[in-house]
């Protein structure tokens, strides 16, 4: 019944490592060489180039790019909205996961599919989809296009599955006997939730929140049509990077991109740490 | 002369799994590698199979230098503790695997698979998937798969370790009978001394990466080379600085036998036909003795009774080495 | 298990269903409805527009090549990460995940910096050798490969770990060489994980927008993909075409996901 198609990054429930691993032979060594070359050409060298361009531009131009009024506003808006959306996801995502795992009602399976839609939809289509209900010509008469709320709405849409899909499997595997033990010791439902269930879910919620924040910071496609990219008002960091690229200022683009990259790498490392901690706890 | 292991050492990081091991495993026999977990016996088996490489030393299989041959060229059959069944293939396909790799003609493969499935009593399960078999059936399938390629030697790594006690015992008898039929040189790893004593023609006792003793089950039981072998093969107790089996002690209610050690019974436990006594002597605080119920009743022992202990005539005793006193 | 009191249970149901309905279900259904408002007219208009047709082809080519590249790389690197020990393995396995959280715009910029033919570290020599990467198909493929890179690996690695290597050892002891072991034993046991990884990669590749926008130069009927056509037509007030193209993309991507959810066995053996 549950169609957990979209495995969320940050393998919270990753398996133990296989017991025996071998040293590299000729074929596998060659394979590793080719794979590393490809990975370097595709990912490592280009990402290094972003940082190198920033460093090459010098500290002053880095500061100048980031203190540029328009850029600073864009970064602030991005961080604010990402934090806000992450907070909403922590609550709503956990609630949705709870309903999916612990509640039984007709049509619950359909919810499971609906949750995958934001992952499946191309981001540009996501923007279009939200415009249909919340844009000009909205059947609700709500038009948030080209406002700050549009940024929030787009981010809420694209980040929705993260917390749900990290919490759901953990909730499914949660042993009921700890809850029963708590109940037998006289704990109320609320106490059990707060003292027994929530601590078990916390790493998964944290992982989902981290992913959701990272996605918020990096989002571009869904905002293009929806937010109008108004400088100082609805322009986000990724749009700023694109504007710099289009204006032929790669150094400034790289400066903003470096900040975004730092957030991305921090989140990945954080997830790695979280995952190891969960694995240790067994 | 069948499998010759000479000077083999293997380390995993700081851990010494095998320390300069040399042993010859005879042709056509059923040999057990016996020892405690982590003693290196599985590593030795895997090195013979080519699944692990040794740091030093050489391996000869039936006179062929095999030290640097990859596993697929050694023509050994290997049976894994957890079966290693190919889960996506039917039982028949599993058994046919090695033959198909060797590009044998289809009808030959089919005939050989039929024959083997009959041998392991799985002919009616040929088209099932491994997941539809019980543990014992899976292990028999794995055995048929290993035998299908007519291996020079058959190696089994704790083959019954994952099975429950009853199936374990059945398969153990069955392996013995199968070996008497097939006669392929067979080596199996076990940490269960009863299994080794019951099934094997020859036992190699391995501990802490070294070989402690090689011999027939009787030799090992009656003439253990040292206190480790003695205590690993069965229960032991200490009397006057020597290891002796608890059922090899005579209990007397008088001091008229020369050399008998006096003591006091501190505990009496009856388990079915057995009566277990704990006796405190001047040297050892807790010597254990096993009597039959009739013997105990004849002596009339109870807690507090004075007794004299002496090893039965013909009992195996081994002096306690300094190494064992620590444990 | 904790019994949720009935009022709370109803509250949770109403809130979560309401949230999902308002945020996802209703808006998505509106797009479908708008697309088919005049019957098939919008789709027909879109499919008779050479720009749209070219963009669809472009998307097909780029996504197809990217999926194949990620399939080969993904399976290979998964085997290396799970079955072998080498220095830097932990760092590599962490770095592999980076493309998941890097902004597509940053991806585009990164590739642009290295592969542009004017002053790119690698772009200049490649250009001299006659290979244009940026503003051409190779760059678009690279951008798409980049963003979908970890998807196959993330599906395959846990399955490889779970399956263990005993079956492979058994195959080797039965005389199979490396290639035979891979095709006959390893691949069949990770088959479904590979299929899921490929389908997810395909969905991701079809929908890539930001990174491709930067490296493609967005040249109509040359380097424009379907996602770029959606943006352009919407901004040119050709809403019917925009909705139709968006519908086609969404349909393909959602179809991928639905196929996976149908294919995926409850308990992948």
Uncertain runs of chain B with pLDDT below 50, 5 residues or more? none
What would you say the CATH architecture of the largest domain in chain B is?
A: 3-Layer(aba) Sandwich
Strand neighbour order, sheet with most strands of chain B: 6-7-8-3-9-10
**What is the number of independent domains of chain A?**
1
Domain ABC transmembrane type-1 (chain A): 75-271
Subunit structure (chain A): The complex is composed of two ATP-binding proteins (CysA), two transmembrane proteins (CysT and CysW) and a solute-binding protein (CysP).
Subcellular location (chain A): Membrane
InterPro entries (chain A): CysT_permease, MetI-like, MetI-like_sf, Sulph_transpt2
Question: What does it look like?
Answer:
The complex is a heterotrimer of chains A (282), B (327) and C (269). In chain A, 76% of the residues lie in helices and 1% in strands. With 282 residues, chain A is mostly helical. Chain A has a single domain, classed as Orthogonal Bundle (MetI-like fold). The radius of gyration of chain A is 22 Å and the shape is globular. The two termini of chain B are 37 Å apart. The mean pLDDT of chain B is 90. Chain B folds into two domains: 227 residues, 3-Layer(aba) Sandwich (Rossmann fold), CATH 3.40.50.300; 74 residues, Nucleic acid-binding proteins (OB fold (Dihydrolipoamide Acetyltransferase, E2P), Beta Barrel), CATH 2.40.50. Chain B is α+β, with helices and mostly antiparallel strands. In chain B, 41% of the residues are buried. Helix content of chain B is 30%, strand content 32%. Chain B is elongated and about 80 Å long. Chain C is mainly α and 269 residues long. Chain C has one domain: MetI-like fold. Chain C contains 13 helices and one strand; from the N terminus they run H-H-H-E-H-H-H-H-H-H-H-H-H-H. The two termini of chain C are 29 Å apart. Chains A and C meet through strand 1, helix 1, helix 2, helix 3 and helix 4 of A and helix 1, helix 3, strand 1, helix 4 and helix 5 of C. Strand 1 of chain A pairs parallel with strand 1 of chain C. Chain A: It is found in: Membrane. Chain A: Keywords: Membrane, Sulfate transport, Transmembrane, Transmembrane helix, Transport. Chain A: This is Sulfate transport system permease protein CysT. Chain A: Belongs to the binding-protein-dependent transport system permease family. CysTW subfamily. Chain A: Pfam families: BPD_transp_1 (PF00528). Chain B: Keywords: ATP-binding, Nucleotide-binding, Sulfate transport, Translocase, Transport.
């Amino acid at each position: 019944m549950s169609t957990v198609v979209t495995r969320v990054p940050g393998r919270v429930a990753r398996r133990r490592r296989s017991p025996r691993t071998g040293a590299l032979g000729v074929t596998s060594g060659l394979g590793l060489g080719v794979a590393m070359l490809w990975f370097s050409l595709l990912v490592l060298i280009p990402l290094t180039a972003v940082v190198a361009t920033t460093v090459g531009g010098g500290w002053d131009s880095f500061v100048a790019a980031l203190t540029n009024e328009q850029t600073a506003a864009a970064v602030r808006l991005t961080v604010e909205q990402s934090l806000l959306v992450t907070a909403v996801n922590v609550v709503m995502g956990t609630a949705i996961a709870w309903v999916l795992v612990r509640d039984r009602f007709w049509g619950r399976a359909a919810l499971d599919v609906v949750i995958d839609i934001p992952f499946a939809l191309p981001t540009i289509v996501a923007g279009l989809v939200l415009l249909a209900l919340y844009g000009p010509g909205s059947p609700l008469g709500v038009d948030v296009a080209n406002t700050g709320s549009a940024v929030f709405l787009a981010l809420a849409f694209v980040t929705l599955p993260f917390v749900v899909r990290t919490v759901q499997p953990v909730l499914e595997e949660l042993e009921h006997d700890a809850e029963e033990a708590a109940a037998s010791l006289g704990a109320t439902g609320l106490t059990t939730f707060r003292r027994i269930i929530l601590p078990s879910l916390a790493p998964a919620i944290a992982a989902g929140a981290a992913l959701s924040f990272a996605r918020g910071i990096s989002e571009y496609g869904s905002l293009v049509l929806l937010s109008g990219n108004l400088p100082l008002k609805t322009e986000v960091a990724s749009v700023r990077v694109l504007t710099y690229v289009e204006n032929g200022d790669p150094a400034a683009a790289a400066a903003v991109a470096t900040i975004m990259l730092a957030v991305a790498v921090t989140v990945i490392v954080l997830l790695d740490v979280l995952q190891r901690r969960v694995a240790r706890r067994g | 002369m069948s499998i010759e292991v000479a000077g083999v050492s293997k380390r995993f990081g700081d851990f010494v799994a095998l320390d300069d091991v040399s042993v010859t495993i005879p042709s056509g026999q059923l040999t057990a590698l016996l020892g405690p977990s982590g003693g290196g016996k599985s590593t030795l088996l895997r090195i013979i199979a080519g699944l692990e490489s040794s740091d030093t030393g050489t391996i000869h299989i039936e006179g062929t230098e095999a030290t640097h041959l990859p596993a697929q060229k050694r023509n050994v059959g290997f049976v894994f503790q957890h079966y290693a069944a190919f889960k996506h293939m039917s039982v028949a396909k599993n058994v046919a695997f090695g033959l198909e790799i060797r590009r044998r003609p289809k009808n030959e493969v089919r005939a050989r698979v039929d024959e083997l499935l009959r041998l392991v009593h799985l002919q009616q399960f040929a088209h099932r998937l491994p997941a539809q078999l019980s543990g014992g059936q899976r292990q028999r399938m794995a055995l048929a798969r290993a035998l299908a390629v007519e291996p020079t030697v058959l190696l089994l790594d704790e083959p019954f370790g994952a099975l429950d006690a009853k199936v374990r015992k059945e398969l153990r008898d069955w392996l013995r009978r199968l070996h008497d039929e097939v006669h392929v040189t067979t080596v199996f790893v076990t940490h269960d001394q009863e299994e080794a004593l019951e099934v094997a023609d020859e036992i190699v006792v391995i501990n802490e990466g070294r070989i402690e003793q090689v011999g027939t089950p009787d030799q090992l039981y009656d003439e253990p080379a040292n206190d480790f072998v003695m205590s690993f093969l069965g229960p032991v107790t200490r009397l006057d600085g020597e290891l002796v089996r608890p059922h090899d002690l005579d209990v007397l209610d008088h001091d008229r036998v020369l050399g008998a050690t006096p003591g006091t019974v501190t505990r009496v436990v009856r388990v079915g036909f057995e009566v277990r006594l704990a006796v405190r002597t001047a040297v050892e605080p807790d010597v254990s003795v096993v009597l039959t119920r009739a013997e105990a009743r004849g002596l009339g022992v109870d807690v507090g009774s004075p007794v004299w202990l002496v090893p039965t005539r013909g009992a195996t005793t081994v002096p306690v080495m300094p190494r064992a006193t620590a444990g | 298990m904790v019994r949720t009191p009935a009022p709370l249970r109803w509250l949770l149901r109403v809130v979560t269903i309401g949230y999902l309905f308002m945020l996802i279900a209703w808006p998505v259904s509106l797009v479908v409805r708008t697309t088919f408002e005049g019957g098939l007219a919008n789709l027909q208009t879109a499919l008779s527009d050479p720009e749209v047709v070219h963009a669809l082809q472009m998307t097909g080519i780029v996504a197809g090549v990217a999926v194949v590249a990620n399939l080969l790389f993904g399976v290979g690197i998964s085997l290396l990460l799970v079955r072998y020990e080498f220095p830097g393995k932990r760092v590599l396995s962490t770095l592999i995940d980076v493309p998941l959280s890097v902004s597509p715009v940053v991806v585009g910029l990164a590739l642009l910096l290295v592969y542009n033919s004017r002053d790119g570290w690698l772009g200049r020599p490649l250009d001299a050798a006659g290979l244009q990467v940026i503003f051409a198909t190779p760059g678009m493929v690279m951008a798409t490969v980049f963003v979908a890179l970890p998807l196959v690996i993330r599906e395959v690695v846990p399955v490889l770990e779970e399956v263990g290597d005993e079956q492979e050892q058994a195959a080797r002891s039965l005389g199979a060489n490396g290639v035979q072991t891979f095709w006959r034993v390893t691949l069949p046991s990770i088959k479904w994980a590979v299929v899921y990884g490929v389908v997810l990669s395909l969905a991701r590749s079809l929908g890539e927008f930001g990174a491709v926008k930067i490296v493609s130069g967005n040249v109509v009927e040359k380097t424009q993909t379907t996602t770029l056509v959606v943006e352009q037509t919407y901004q040119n007030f050709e809403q019917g075409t925009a909705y139709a193209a968006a519908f086609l993309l969404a349909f393909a991507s959602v179809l991928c996901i639905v196929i996976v959810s149908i294919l995926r066995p409850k308990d992948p053996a």
